[in-house]
């Protein structure tokens, strides 16, 4: 991939100024090698407010694409517009980071992979958890055989999604399970078959029945994985599984919890600093290693394709009650 000018901060723009954009903006503001230049959003007022808060300029999407002072664009819109916008960014000769989940349009993801190669520009999925030092180290140590042959993976993401916010999103099988899937691919590879179950308490909010989803995966190596995501309730037990990953091998194991650091209390809104840190680490890698250093991302658009193929199989499984063989 052709790098950008290393003599000055990499100039970034956002398409989309929703909630996740705040985390990306904070991460860029803390990265000396990058500068947020401009933003756009269908809500012109929101774009203007966010631009003022972040020290950037509000522009139309068309103007962003044509701007010579922008080198890379983050696509932070709802998933349904990701492919169209990312294709436009690449065709205008700019690097692009696409927020997760990338898209249900598998052919569209394949087009992004091809177009990225043709244009010589990075097209990177926002698979942010892999950039946390704890999880990057876990991936490296498993690859080095530090815990022996991997035997099992257990992963969860559990919290209560308020009614008013649940109405704004697809269910967790679409919005968040991709995190568990791309981490599973990174640590164990692609399973040979999966089976999923889903359950719903608030049926009016989750018409697909996926307020909570559990997935069992079987690998050619004999390893097994269990993934669980839920928007149905909180885990306030003595060992909370709010976001937890455990890997066991023949000669050892590893563990990660997003709640290893917590700010605040039950009375005051809790903050999980590791959540913001993953955006900071992803930004540092994308800017300093991919764009300036021409190193590959820790998770590629090919990984995003596999992730979304498996996510589609998960939905077929819990909707149809099937065991899904994965043959990619």
Automatic annotation (TrEMBL):
Domain GFO/IDH/MocA-like oxidoreductase: 136-252
Gene Ontology molecular function: any one: nucleotide binding
Pfam families in the record: GFO_IDH_MocA, GFO_IDH_MocA_C3
Residue stretches making up the Gfo/Idh/MocA-like oxidoreductase N-terminal domain: 10-127
Signal peptide: none
InterPro entries for this protein: Gfo/Idh/MocA-like_OxRdtase_N, Gfo/Idh/MocA_Oxidoreductases, GFO_IDH_MocA-like_dom, NAD(P)-bd_dom_sf
Protein name: Putative dehydrogenase
Organism: Cohnella phaseoli
